[in-house]
Amino acid sequence: RIVNYMGAEPFRPFRINMASGKAYNIRYPEMVAVGRTTVRVYMHLSDDDDEAKDRQQKLSITLIESIEPLDAA
Question: pTM (2 decimals)?
Fold first, then answer.
């Protein structure tokens, strides 16, 4: 469950694998907001602070295929 990964002490990066084949690498706990039926993932489009634009993706919890530690892949 995603809440287990979010509440881990210390936080360990993880990957969300979707049924569509897309994957989201979660490197910081601030990147994710968990709701009842959705997970919102916040990302930067650039590593350059002057050009960084935030993007968010809303994921349906029912379409999450698996969650795994990032170091496992």
Answer: 0.80
